[in-house]
Fold these 2 entries.
Entry 1:
Amino acid sequence: MENERKTTNAYRIFLRRFLAGALLLLLLCALTVLVFDPFYHYHAPSFGLRPVLTEKEHQVDGTLRTFDYDGILLGSSHADNFDLSQAEALFGFPFVKAVRSGGNLFDLCAYADEAFEAQPALKLVLFNLDPAPLHGTAEESFAETGYPFYLQDKNPFNDVSYLLNKDVLLRRIPYELAQSASARFVAERPYSWYAEKDFSEAATLSHYPRHPRTEPMGDKEAGSENFEANCARLLALIEAHPATDFVFFLPPLSMLYWDSVYRAGTLEQVLYECEQVLARVLSYDNVSAYFFCDDRALITDLDRYMDFTHYDEKANDRILEELADPDSAFRLRSVEDVSARMQGMRSLVEDLLANEIKALEDAGRFHYSDG
Amino acid sequence: MFQTYSFLFLFLPVLLAGWYLLLHRGMHRAALSFLCAMSLMFYASFGVRALLLLAGSVLLTVLISRLMTLPGVRARGALVKGLAAAGIVSQLFLLLLYKIPPSMRLLLPVGLGFYTLRHIAYLADVANEGERDDLYSVLAFLLFFPTLTQGPITLREDMIGQFTTATERPFRAEFLARGLSLFTLGLAKKLLVADTLGHFVDLSYEYLPRTETLSAAVAVFLFVPQLYFDFSGYCDMAEGISGMLGLRLPLNFDSPLQAASAKELWRRWHITLSRFFLRYVYQPLGGSRRGKGRAVLLTLMVFLISGFWHGSTLGYLIWGFLAGLPVALRALGKDSSLFRTLDRLPLVLRRLVTFVWVSLAFVFFRAPDVETALTMLRHLLLPVPISRAFIRVLPTLVVTPESWLVKNLFAYANPALEELGAWLFAALFLCLVIVLLCAKNARRRVSEWTEAQFCSLPRALLLSLLLAWSVLSFSGVGSFLYFQY
């Protein structure tokens, strides 16, 4: 009997030590994540650390919730290289960036909703509109891309995936600490990628697999179902926040992009959708719009691009300067102005196809996709 | 799956509390019903379709086994045999439906390959023995979640008695201590060892055109340890959970990579599958009773069936053939001078030869198709100057949080040392794998620990560390390799 009790005690002692040890270690790990919080899920950077924002899928939700800001910059990868300190200097208040690769409009609007929930008195939304997502999927695409929902939803229980996560502990926190201390790290341009890329005509052309033939021009309203749903989502966002200023802008995609849509037979659709969306948003008093697609000097200079749509960070700086300037030549002032600019864009594309693109073609600079 | 936060922090505590509370109050049937309900809940996480299929399969097996043991039926041997055959054919049909050629294959429900074999064995046992089991115990046996998805393939004799007498084993701290220890070691084997090995193997397959002798060797010779740690890790967890409930599962892995011959290796690898084939296929077809030639053919046939059970592609059949070939050859030429010479080789050499042979056979198991397997084997013979060899960069491509940290600590000191950091991590990890393969296996180790050893503080803390480290690895881990069977 005595022996049996002793044995049971031995196992009980083991269990106490084992469970207490494991619990203590896990609590320590959770506490470390909570303190350093590399995804800013609980708080903005502390202990004098600079924000280290390099992983949009994991950090956008946190920054929208915990950072202090009056303006947000929404967009696709074309918005990744914007300098937030420049935005703050130009507009006079702090910004956060909410970017989503591909620029799905429902995703970007969901980010905007999160921002308004965290900062109801948001002053300004700078919204980068790409032509392709206008007729893209008209629903949120987070689930399809393996998004870390535990960082987005309000369920405190699934935070365990963040708090007890080896990757966060051994990789993200050391990375956060090292980058924050590094003089080379540019904290002002969250999620930027320009430093790792080769901006040159050769690189741009090598990343442009040209369609092997020119397809017949398609119906301009071919993507109307998705387009209308995307537009409705965008307009609902504007209507829900009449006290906030919205600035929409279409970025300066290179002339190769316009060649690609021309050869795919979707040029008229793209121009129609751009015109429609700009005209519709401009009907609201709290909205202004800018159109950079017809910046001929930039879009024909392929040394400023890394592929057929992505431009260098100097282009981002220039865009911000123009957005802050109400008298900018890129600003669209009325619905009539939008129509005229689209007509001008059509002429510009025709001219580019006949001259710059033709010259590249004649010089054998293109490589072609399989079709 | 066991390696989830919800399983560890919610499901397991609720299961243990409910099980022992009901047993403590003497509510035997309620305890078994509770276990069945929890098992169904566990399996429901793999989808409603899979759950319905399992429920249908269990209902059929239970119904037929009850019919077979009705007094009126039991007396009529032909009827019992007919019923058993109907049940077994139904289970085989279900199995074949999902194992038909890949182009026609339906999405395989998790664990189907395992539970259909269990049902077949149960029906055969009931037909032979004619005993009527307690219904609650049968349901608990057929639905017992730790064995449902990846085995071990338990038999009537392993489990029914334990479920029937569950009230005789009330809660003991020892059950929990040994069970938790084994569960932790299994978890660590899967998450910390197998998954890291998987990075090396997967990268070698991913970059197949660039592989040469050494990196092909990584793919070929690390896959078997990966599979061993993955599958035996699962079995240790299953045994650990069963142990916490006061139940024992049959041994499924007994340090097979320490075997000195192919025959010994297969006796120690996936033991319950070998037992199934031996008892329900090999022996009923005559076994070794009808001459050497027939025994050899039956051995090869059993290995081919085992290959087919894993998958109906040519690769699995070749694997089955290669796995069985040395066993069959030895049975054929037991007294030949070649085998006598082989048996006189030093133990370490015999172990090495066995490991190399089994690793080469497993290339056809791991590769997505025979062409890839042959390419990998060809590359194994492809010497390339080390300066151009893929092996130079392979460790740098492995990105686990641990390897990342080591690599970047070196890079932080001096960017030129990043590659060295990656290599150091790979070398240390490989040493750990070799030590673990040569050491006593987790199940044996835990069962041999005395109460005094359980009292050791460093042991408790080491296990705590392993559990915590494994839990931290829950995010971003892959599923078990044997889930697909």
Entry 2:
Amino acid sequence: MAGKRLAKGGRIDHDRPLRFTFNGRAYSGLAGDTLASALLANGLRLTARSFKYHRPRGIVGAGVEEPSALVELTGADAAGNLQATTVPLTDGLEARSVNCWPSPAFDLGAVAQLAGRFIPAGFYYKTFKWPNWQLYAPAIRRAAGLAAAPRTPPAEGRYEARYGHCDLLIAGAGPAGLMAAQVAARAGLRVMIVDEGTEPGGALLSRRLQIAGAPALQWVEEAVAELAALPDVIHLQQATVWACREHNYLMATERAPERPGLMERSWRIRAGHVITATGAMERAIPFGNNDRPGVMLASAVQSYVNRYAVLPGRRAVIFANNNSAYAVAADLLAAGGQVVAIIDSRADVPEAARALVPQLTVRAGHVVISAHGARALRGVRIAPLAGGPEETLACDLLAVSGGWNPAVHLWSQSRSTLRYDEALAAFLPDRPAQAFSAAGAAAGAFALEDALRSGAEVAARIANVAVPEIPDAQDLPYAIAPHWRVEAARGKAFLDLQNDVTVDDVHLALREGYSDVELVKRYTTAGMGIDQGKTGNVNVIGTVALARGLEPGAVGTTTFRAPWTPVSFGAIAGMRDGQLALPWRHTPVTQWNLDRGAVMYEAGARWRRPGYFPRPGETMQEAVDRECRAVRFGVGVYDGSPLGKFELKGRCVGRFLDFLYSNIMSSLTPGNGRYGLMLSDDGLIMDDGVCFRLDAGRWMISTSTGHAEAIHSHMEEQLQMRCPGWNVLITPVTSQWTNATICGPQARAVMEALGTDIDLSPEAFPFMSLRDGHVAGLPARVVRVSFTGELSFEVNVAPRHMRELWDRVMEAGADFGILPVGSEASHVLRVEKGFLSLGHEVDGTVDAHDLGMGWVMSRKKDDYLGKRAVAIRRAGSHGGAGRRELVGVLPEPDCPIPEGAPLTPGGRREATEGFVTACVWSVVQERWVGLALLENGHARQGETAYVRLKGGAVIPVRVSAPCHYDPDGQRLRS
Amino acid sequence: MLLITCPFCGPRNESEFVYGGPVKPPRPDPATRDDAEWTEWLTHVPNPVGPVEEQWWHARGCGTWLTIWRDTRSHDIVGAPHDGG
């Protein structure tokens, strides 16, 4: 039992106990505690086992810098790999250690420790490289542990996202941030101040300082109250600015928004200017066994004493290379703690520092060589820096301060530069790359009054106002002599506790040639993981610098990337989940389809369409056959509404369409249409569809369902970027025209039964023409197109009339046995006809000639999109020899062939010469028929080709023309 | 998330736009180019380190195709270089 709770003081409520469990045992903490402070108050030391060596680990820090005390929450708050120092204690919290089984005190995985010296940096990559790393990675990663993702979803609730706009975003509500917010808000700027802590104040919460003669937290309270009263200020606590994107777009997550049912809120903030007032983090000093539970950051000790009223140890030793730890010693003494000595690596300790704790022994020019104790600290071995007699000091707490690193992460994410400051032994913000400024400790202004001034000055410059008077604030000036590592260290000296990276690992990386700091990071994994090396990274740089004889500034930092701290997936996704992320698109007939028990498919572009309409006891194949027979021998109807539709209007539309399509559209007369292909300028088939002329200056085109958006973009791009001044107006009308397409030999009879004022005779209303009029009393545009090969009437009406039309069609068609037809049947019908389908027969290699559609490539037009590219490509490939061409295939014996199955010469196992694009049961041929792309296929009709299936089975197929039914098109023209 | 200024709608988030690639030289008259020249025009897409002119479609806005100059090193949207690049 090392730590204990102080009787009074701190920012906790001594009268509100909270119960919690840790590794199954019950404990009690206080309101205001973090899990870490409550564990320390209960005398717990050993909280986790380490990642690679399963060494015992305790609590090191007091906030987001914590590298080792990782816990997993279970129950309603289930979450993995949280830092115990950032988990606010709640009543009933259930937590357990990660990386140890069955308990941190008795960890079977710790046997790995015995083999520890055989697991240097890069060990896994070197050892498990044959035949490949992927084979071993899963098992190794499982052994490496860390917590698993929760099996069940956490507590009920939702996440939401919100946009924020402000003139000035301030990250951090410590002294500098609050000062800056005050100055900017008073000047009338729209200010957002966002702080990750549970309450504002930053480092002031952990220290005993005064501002303007009163406790510093009183100043904080007044500043916060003033900001709250201003209309254009948004102040968020427990909210972390975790990423900076281009043009001052910042991501922040509010972890405890005050709204029932809301778990987290994600903010996307566009800020005119950003001030990073993110403070600074203390770094450790590497010495032997510096990971023993009981070795803590001095600032964390200070935080536990002052903020949480917890003494983390009974007998403390302090090991420092700078002034800040002297205030920690003073605070420990004031709280009734015992301090054995201050070990200071500096030969000369400033008098101002000594004066804070005149009663203490200061061992100037000394260092800690190693820590003692197995599962908890029992003492430290110290020696003069210059060498000399060693001695042991008994202690259960070692407070280490290796100096301070400004939190430059957000600053650096904006690509703003850093410089290394010799005097502060730290990387400081240098030149901003966006509208960014740094203030306070984040800018190297470590002493309180400097931090306040820095915040005020930066904000005054942004707001273009005078710098106000800065309140008095006494603080010890910062002075440091960097000490990157203890040369005489015995035992493992850890740089990165979370990833178990030691000084030796970095030296190994350097010896093996990974000399750049980015490579050192990747080879050793130093600075990765949940804490992202917040306590260790600069020591890695210092270690590299010492080994290579460089200044730390010449070594440089690794790249700072988002996120600053872990972000939950829920916060990123927000409400963009399921139907809210990708909503279905419906036609007015969707509900009718669902009521009839249709199996629904996505038809592209999120349109929901029926796949087929099974009757009770019917298989899918039986249902599809039935629907196909209706169309071939009677009549069927399908809902063609999702097809992309555009109306083009203007004097130059004909010319424009001639440029877009490979064939000529300008020669169409009103009421008539043509099938066409659109190519991209590099000769690939983008889309196919029909184009109708409505009148002299109006046209209507259709595109495939899934490509409507892409074709819209394409047409607008061509029009706006390449054809400026052309008189063309493009209007998407996909949702304005819905249709019922009646198809089959009895289609005309059904149309007559519906009643129409349009002359339906083939002479008056031939194939590929369009008539406006009325059908079933509804205003309608009827188009004679056919995607099934049968006589078809596509009856287009306004969406508000669609459901009525549909009901009337079903009524009128009942006498003729009309059936609704799903997309499965449509697929069969088009394959029987050899009609192409984008994505099946058309990929990025196929041109119109390959499809046997050379006629669609106009020779009359000098130019259209893709013409030249197709000509160049065909000239280059020996006049088209060896190209894969569209053919029909008839399996012999009669059997289905899986879509995509390869064709190989003689069915041998060698390079493919094509593949089967589709294969269906034909209700007219009463056998399986297919389509394929086959090398030189057009010349091979009548021959036998061979499908080779996975596993080696071979199916011979007779090569035929692509059209398996009614090759002259008698039926669709009837 | 770039902030792109649409000439009609003003500064808008990148998420409203669809990227349309770098701007190529104007499409030549195919009759005046041999195959090699045409292939060069077709396949050569500017990809400089530094400012590049590119086109964006304000798909979730007014539908305008617009061009901006973007510095590929910094994502800064910059003015058109005086000498045209």
